[in-house]
Structures are given as C-alpha cells and as structure tokens.
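Subject: two folds for Thursday's group meeting

Dear M.,

Sorry for the delay on this. The cluster queue was jammed most of the week, so I only got both jobs back this morning. I'm pasting them in the order they finished. Each block is the input sequence followed by the predicted structure tokens. Could you check whether the formatting survives your parser before we put anything on slides? The first protein is the one we discussed after the seminar.
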Amino acid sequence: MTETHIPQRYATNPAQIPGMTTQDLRDTYLIPDVFVPGEIRLTYTHHDRIVLGGAVPAGAVLELGGYPEIRSDYFLEHREVGIINVGGTGTVTADGEVYTLVKGACLYLGRGIKEVSFADASGETGAQFYLFSAPAHTAYPSALVSPGEGTVRELGDQLTSNRRTLNQYIHENGVKSCQIVMGVTELHPGSMWNTMPAHTHDRRTECYLYFDLPEDARVIHLMGEREETRHLVIADRQAVISPSWSLHSGVGTSSYTFIWAMAGENQAFDDMDAAPVTDLR
C-alpha cells in the first residue's frame, strides 16, 4: 500500500515558538508514525522542500510512485533520495538494479530513476527503510554503503555523557549528491547526549530519526532559538524536523542511535554556529 498524497508541514519562523503549546510543537515538528507495516508513509516539509518518511514492506513489495504534492510523474523525476535501513535485511530495486541493505546500510539514488520498490530480503522479515529526499538539479550515480564503510568520526567524551561514533555516508567527501548530507550516529553505552554543545546552521534544514531506543525510554529533543528553547519528548523510530534557525540536540533516558540528514545551501558538515551551553535559556 502506498499513500496517494503526502501530508504537508508548512515552514515556520522563530517568532512563532513562544506562543506554541506542547501539542502545537508536536503537530508542527514531530513525525510520530514514520514506519507503518505494509505502507510507504511520507511527510513533505516546506523547509528546504524535504520529503521524509518510511517504507515497511511487511512481506509485500512497495512501489515508490509520483505524488501530486511534488508535481512529478515519478518520485525521482526532480529529486534525489537517501535510504537507510533500520530494520531487518531488505532490498531496494531501482530501475531493475537490486540493492541489498542490512541494518544500518545507506543507499543513495539520484535524479531520473523511474522505478523504485522496497521488499524484505529472501527469507527475511522486518525491513524498515527510512527515506530522506530533496530536490536535485542534476543526476549522480547510485551508491550503496555498508555499515562502517563511510567516514567514521569519534566524538565526545564519556565524562560528559556524549561519547558517540558518527558515520558519514552521503557528504561532500563521500557519496556524491546535489543537496543531501546523511549519516548515522551511535551513542556509546552510558552516553545519552547527542550534538552537545548544540548548534544551528542557517544554511540547512536537518531532520533526526531516533531509533534503537528501548520501548520504555525517551529522548528529550531540544529545539528553538538559544535564548528561547523548547523541547519535544520523542519515542523510538520517531522523526523530528529542525528548521535552519533552530538548534538541535537531545538527551535520552538510555543510549540510542539516530539518523541525521540535511539539505539546503551547502554540504559542508562543519558549517555550523555553536550554541554554548552557557548561552541556552
């Protein structure tokens, strides 16, 4: 099953934050139901015109088609997409080429690919594909990266509870794309903070997908401006949209893993404006 329409989230600005209730924040920035068995479920945000969501074959073959919201005959007519599997082993077929994705593998598909479908691998169940798509002005080759094969960066310190391993997959020195920058960060046991100190980057929108979080655990995701912060309480396999003006950081009640993905003005991973802890309000 594939939805015939994509729900839309309109762009927001910092002046709206002080008047928002908790439910307003959740309705605007949180995507609670990313993975639904037997469906491709997507959300369109007008922040940098990103489309994100999940595909869960659940024993079927799911086809990624065109949608009226993107005015295209097929999904990748004017777009590119990064795909990371967060479940059991599955396959993505792109114009007849079959790619096998184990958990944590990343597949990039460029503009112009007409037929894309998702399935569980033979004899496997439980594939869950996370999709992050942005407009593309040209075509780059498809590329599959297995877990641990990207650019690996060790960050943080156990003493400040933010020791983490960052895997860069789609970026300026890795898999080539028009806009997308994408990877996976895994927190080490005993660490709960991601991206701290926090930062903003006015030139890109970033989205997080939190996963490998125990059912009874949560991540407190910080957002907003550094002098007007807010938070969202996020469960396993939920996603959050972070506009370019918003800082983004979080702390969990246990360790977890998250996918970070960006699109916008440039692809320089380190192009960010730090928000020191002492400046946060």
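Second protein, same layout:
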Amino acid sequence: MNSREQILGRVRRALTDVPKDDTAYEQAVSRDYLREHGERTVEETVDLLAENLADYRAIVHRTDAAALPSVLAGLLAARGARTVLVPPGLPSHWLTGVEQVPDRAESTPHELDGVDSVVTGCAVAIAETGTIVLDGAPDQGRRRITLVPDHHICVVRVPDQVVSSVPQALERLDPARPLTWISGPSATSDIELDRVEGVHGPRTLEVVLVSGE
C-alpha cells in the first residue's frame, strides 16, 4: 500500500458515519456575500478608483481620448524618458516623438532594465481595492515588460474597464491567462518598517484614466 492509498483510506474511514443524504459542501457553504460595498454611480466608482490608486502611491491623471497622446508625451518628457517599451497591440497614435522599443521574446532582463519607461493598457481596474489587472493582452504585452523597467504608465479606459469590486473583476478575467494584479508601485518593508520601492517591479506607477477612448 502506497502513501496515497493510506491517506484515502483514512479519509474513507473518517467519513463512514456521515449520512448519505448529508448536504453537499457546494450547497452547504453560503455564496450570498456582497458583490460590492455600497451603491455608487459610475462617476463615484471612478472617483473611488482614483482615490485608492493615489492611496497606494500611484500617480493618477485624467484626460480624454483626444488629449491622451499629449498627456503621455508630457509624462514621458517630465520623466526624461528617451526610450519607451511598447507592447505590440498598443494603439499607434498614443505615442509620438519617442524611441519605441518593441516587446520581443528574445529581450534580456539587462536590455529591459535599460529602457526608461513602459506604456501599457490594462484588462480591468478595481475601484474598491485600487488595483490594476493585466492579462497579457496585445496592448499589455508580456508580464516581464511591466516588472523590469523602473517606470510604468498604465492607461485605463473609463468607464468600460472600471469595476467596483474583485468579484466583478473576476467575471471579466480568464484564469488561464497570465494575470498580474498591481496595487501601486512595487514596495516592501523590512522588520523596522523602512519602505523601499522598486524591489519587485517599477518604482513609479502612473495611471491615466482616459474617457472616450
């Protein structure tokens, strides 16, 4: 008898006194938890997202589709970014006047670290937690391009990509895709609570909430 058979045998013996008509686990556990906390209008939901993003030390900007290219150009210029990593499906009109570095499978971590900034879209943004979720779609690229460069600009289409809660976000996401959940810039603290940013990802996260895109 192997270990697997021993464990299963113990489970069977432990269940011998359980009635045959006992309620199944899937039915016994209540699933009527709140899908979101409170009722909000679309505008209030977007405002909550902006507030929680800022609380996590992300830098939040708002604009419309027409002004988005100039806003992105201004953010990159203020950063002094000369090279920008670009996923293959990013709309071409978003970026002008900068050297665009394509997302290539053969790029080394050293090459990615040498890029000044990365600009991506997102899959969904969660207002209650201030979280941006990436799923590797064409406008977001491979996971590593948002983890190695020190500066990440993420564009969120408002209101289409904004939801109130995590349960609502999960309904939109494919669990088979490479999901990256981002709540502010990468940071960690040691035992003395000294905060260090940029350890596991970008030191600076800027989120652009764009309407009418």
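Two things I noticed about the second structure. The two ends are 63 Å apart (CA to CA). Helices lie at 3-14, 25-28, 42-55, 68-79, 109-113, 166-172.

Cheers,
T.
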